[in-house]
């Protein structure tokens, strides 16, 4: 057809060329109305046309599945890593609670040290988390262990659990100073050493030496 | 084998129209529902572990039974979809997206839950130091104990002994002197009372205490300083307006209501708080609350201006798209941060991407892509009212406004029909969410919206123009703001008039139940209307042919009468001859 058409263009001046007639015939077949247009099936098909598109292809479904699988694997990996970290933290906290001696002020440092070692064993990325737990351990386990395991032989007053009345009862501490100690405790969280009483305004070295035998941390 | 060929036959007999692409709609809805479900599940789990309730046999049996029921329902649904020719693939994609959404939500919730700052706040509340960047502009405090509040993204939290990294979001409350020192984008070290929030979406609160409670660690970067300068200049420009203008012009233009802005040195007189609260209340009762927040309207205006200017200058398509993206990004940066602003921005960018590629935009697909991308990026948007209202309004307008307008146009002039249809569609779609926020229905919302519609665009353009020049010339900006305040005066009058009466709102059941009830009522009434219209209107098959069926309706009658009258008058001398 194309090979026929090419000479037809070249011999354009002659209108009664065979190929030109053939071309116009094939065009006419495509234009106008013909019998097939009236078919009922085709009409119904066109009536149905225009349904909103809701059909995904299998490729779309496969892509969704692959993305989903990838994300699941990724989050599972991260979750497992995280729970390993938390387990390590819990273990560290447990040993800290066991080793903690409520009577001595060194217990806190020991606990932190054991935690620090656990942290350094882990990957760098988890160091942050472990640090978190160190602090969480300090916040939770110490006040829990200290009052629950009181040393009956120790008559000294624990600065971290003392109330206003108890402090007031100590000779050398009046109600104002007692309130200042409580305020200071709230500000710094907890006392780690009796020497921190020096930071409280109104307590000098002299007063501290006077009350030192009466209090502990 | 026989079923397979049946499914294939169903597939071939269903002819879909590519210009009405609704494939992503079920995917987006499933994703949203999955995010909400995962949040509910997480909260329930946390509540049960905190309350000391352990999983017992009955709970496990019920969960397994529910999972099995869901599985069977999905299987039945996919079989049905395969039979009607849509195919099972859509169910597959929806299930995968739902799982994806649940994983994303769960991770985000878990990260927020295990964040050191959040853990600390659950344990104790008390004196603490935090370091972080202020990520939102300083506002007047919602809490009577403080003067101002600012949202902060933490970098570290410090209890005096140990300093830990954190990424939690904290709302910082401060008193008079400190308020003037807080700037968006700067990094601060704040000391004060730290604890869990009493209300609001931000989970943690911090009140600045003491002399050295607020210490600047890092100055705000220069883009932040420019932004603050532009916004402050605009507030300065509006400070000379009447009371309503001072509240509404910044509200309409930037989404900052005047009374939320911190009173500064140039504010000779503070905004009357009672009036501002009453105005806000009346706007809500009149159902035009959306004017006080920025949404798609601003972006449509700016994109339209850019495209028209570029079309006049015969700028190539791709450069227009890039200019579109840049200008809307600048606009969004100057607005009050909000989920509706981000939604409008991302959706506008999808339109720009379509322009860049030289393809037609489909509003529904653009909306669904926006929702899917934004939800997967930040699942907490799923329970944000701003995002939900904005998305629902767009969905309503895209899906319903055209058919409603077609029906309305039989009785009303085209422009009025379009405006009415748009309001009606947006209201219908957002009403269930509004009911969830406040258990009442605004009765006059449609007339109120129609009354303000003519001035909204005008006042917005004037306000934006004022914002654009405020940093160079405050006097000129004041003039533009004054013009814009005439538009807002109309809104104020409408709100006071329609939102003020005794019958401005009717009570409705609140909460999720009320929302579902309202959605059910809406669905029933709209399907009834559609059924009646189908019964009365021309048959479906007529629509298979090109063109619009010409029927006897009031609009056609009036048009013919009008055309005849005009023709008669025009050719009057011929009749006289």
UniProtKB/TrEMBL annotation, chain A:
SMART domains membership: HhH1 (SM00278)
Membrane-spanning parts: 56-80
Alphabetical list of PANTHER family matching this protein: ENDONUCLEASE/EXONUCLEASE/PHOSPHATASE FAMILY DOMAIN-CONTAINING PROTEIN 1, ENDONUCLEASE_EXONUCLEASE_PHOSPHATASE FAMILY DOMAIN-CONTAINING PROTEIN 1
InterPro entries associated with the record: Competence_ComEA_HhH (IPR004509), Endo/Exo/Phosphatase_dom_1 (IPR051675), Hlx-hairpin-Hlx_DNA-bd_motif (IPR003583), RuvA_2-like (IPR010994)
Compositionally skewed regions (Polar residues) per UniProt: 1-13
Gene Ontology terms for molecular function: DNA binding
GO biological process: DNA repair; protein secretion by the type II secretion system
One Pfam family this sequence matches: HHH_3
Residue ranges of the region described as Disordered: 1-26, 95-157
Keyword Membrane: yes
Record's keyword terms, sorted: Membrane, Transmembrane, Transmembrane helix
Organism of provenance: Bifidobacterium callitrichos DSM 23973
UniProt xrefs under NCBIfam families: competence protein ComEA helix-hairpin-helix repeat region (TIGR00426)
Single GO cellular component term: type II protein secretion system complex
Record-given protein name: Competence protein ComEA
Domain Helix-hairpin-helix DNA-binding motif class: 165-184, 195-214
Automatic annotation (TrEMBL), chain B:
Domain ComEC/Rec2-related protein: 276-518
Pfam family, one: Competence
Leader peptide range in chain numbering: none
Xref: InterPro entries: ComEC_N (IPR004477), Competence_DNA_uptake (IPR052159)
Transmembrane segments: 24-42, 57-78, 90-108, 287-306, 318-335, 341-357, 364-386, 392-412, 449-471
Taxonomy, superkingdom: Bacteria
Keyword list, A-Z: Cell membrane, Membrane, Transmembrane, Transmembrane helix
Entry keyword annotation includes Membrane: yes
Coiled coil: none
Membrane topology: Multi-pass membrane protein
Subcellular localization(s) per the UniProt record: Cell membrane
One cellular component term from this protein's GO annotations in UniProt: plasma membrane
PANTHER family found in the cross-reference section: BETA-LACTAMASE DOMAIN PROTEIN, DNA INTERNALIZATION/COMPETENCE PROTEIN COMEC/REC2
Protein name (database record): Competence protein
Species of provenance: Bifidobacterium callitrichos DSM 23973
């Amino acid at each position: 057809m194309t090979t026929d058409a090419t000479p037809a263009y070249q011999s354009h001046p002659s209108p009664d060329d065979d190929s030109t007639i053939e071309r116009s015939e094939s065009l006419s077949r495509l234009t106008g109305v013909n019998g097939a247009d009236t078919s009922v099936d085709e009409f119904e098909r066109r009536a149905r046309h225009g349904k909103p598109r809701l059909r995904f292809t299998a490729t779309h479904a496969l892509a969704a599945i692959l993305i989903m699988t990838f994300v699941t694997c990724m989050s599972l990996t991260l979750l497992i890593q995280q729970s390993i970290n938390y387990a390590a933290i819990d273990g560290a906290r447990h040993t800290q609670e066991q080793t903690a001696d409520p009577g001595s002020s060194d217990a806190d440092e020991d606990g932190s040290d054991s935690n620090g070692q656990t942290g350094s064993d882990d990957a760098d990325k988890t160091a942050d988390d472990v640090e978190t737990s160190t602090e969480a351990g300090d916040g939770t386990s110490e006040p829990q262990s200290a009052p629950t395991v009181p040393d009956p032989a120790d008559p000294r007053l624990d600065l971290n659990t003392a109330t206003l009345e108890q402090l007031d009862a100590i000779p050398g501490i009046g109600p104002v100073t007692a309130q200042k100690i409580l305020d200071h405790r709230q500000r710094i969280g907890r006392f780690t050493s009796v020497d921190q009483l020096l930071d409280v305004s109104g307590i000098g070295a002299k007063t501290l030496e006077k009350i030192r035998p009466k209090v502990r941390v | 084998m026989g079923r397979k060929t049946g499914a294939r036959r169903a597939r071939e007999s269903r002819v879909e129209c590519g210009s009405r692409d609704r494939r992503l709609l079920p995917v987006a809805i499933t994703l949203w529902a999955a995010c909400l479900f995962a949040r509910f599940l997480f909260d329930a789990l946390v509540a049960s572990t905190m309350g000391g309730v352990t999983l017992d046999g009955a709970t496990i049996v019920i969960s397994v039974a529910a999972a099995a029921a869901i599985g069977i329902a999905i299987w039945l649904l996919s079989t049905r979809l395969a039979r009607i020719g849509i195919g099972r693939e859509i169910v597959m994609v929806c299930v995968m997206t739902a799982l994806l959404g649940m994983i994303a939500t769960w991770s985000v919730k878990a990260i927020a839950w295990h964040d050191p700052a959040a853990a600390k706040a659950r344990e104790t509340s008390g004196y603490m130091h935090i370091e972080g960047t202020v990520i939102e502009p300083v506002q007047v405090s919602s809490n009577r104990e403080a003067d101002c509040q600012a949202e902060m993204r933490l970098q570290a939290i410090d209890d005096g002994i140990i300093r830990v990294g954190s990424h939690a979001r904290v709302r910082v409350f401060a008193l008079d002197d400190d308020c003037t020192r807080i700037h968006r984008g700067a990094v601060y070290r704040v000391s004060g009372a730290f604890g869990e929030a009493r209300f609001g979406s931000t989970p943690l609160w911090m009140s600045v205490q003491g002399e050295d409670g607020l210490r600047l660690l890092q100055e705000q970067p220069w883009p932040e300083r420019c932004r603050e300068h532009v916004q402050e200049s605009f507030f300065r420009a509006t400070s000379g307006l009447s009371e309503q203008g001072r509240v509404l012009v910044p509200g309409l233009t930037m989404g900052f209501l005047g009374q939320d802005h911190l009173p500064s040195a140039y504010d000779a007189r503070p905004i009357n708080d009672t009036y501002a609260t009453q105005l806000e209340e009346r706007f809500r009762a009149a159902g035009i609350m959306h004017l006080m927040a920025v949404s798609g309207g601003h972006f449509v205006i700016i994109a339209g201006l850019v495209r028209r200017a570029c079309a006049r200058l015969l700028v190539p398509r791709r450069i227009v798209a890039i200019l579109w993206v840049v200008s809307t990004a600048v606009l969004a940066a100057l607005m009050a941060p909000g989920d509706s602003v981000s939604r409008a921005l991302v959706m506008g960018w999808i339109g720009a991407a379509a322009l860049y590629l030289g393809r037609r935009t489909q509003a529904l697909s653009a909306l669904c892509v926006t929702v899917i991308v934004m939800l997967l990026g930040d699942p907490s948007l799923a329970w944000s009212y701003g995002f939900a209202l904005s998305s629902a309004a767009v969905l309503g307008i895209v899906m319903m406004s055209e058919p409603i307008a077609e029906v309305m146009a039989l009785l009303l002039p085209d422009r009025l029909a379009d405006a009415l249809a748009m309001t009606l569609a947006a209201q219908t779609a957002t009403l269930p969410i509004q009911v969830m926020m406040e258990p009442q229905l605004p009765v006059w919302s449609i007339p109120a919206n129609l009354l303000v519609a003519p001035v909204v665009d005008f006042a917005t353009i004037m306000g934006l123009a004022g914002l654009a020049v405020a940093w160079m010339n405050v006097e000129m900006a004041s003039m533009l703001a004054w013009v814009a305040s005439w538009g807002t005066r109309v809104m104020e009058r409408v709100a006071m008039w329609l939102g003020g009466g005794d019958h401005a709102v009717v009570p409705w059941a609140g909460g999720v139940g009320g929302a579902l009830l309202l959605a059910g009522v809406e669905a029933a009434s709209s399907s009834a209307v559609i059924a009646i219209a189908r019964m009365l209107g021309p048959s479906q098959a007529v629509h298979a042919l090109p063109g619009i069926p010409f029927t006897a309706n009031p609009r056609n009658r009036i048009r013919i009468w009008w055309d005849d009258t005009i023709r008669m008058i025009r050719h009057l001398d011929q009749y006289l001859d």
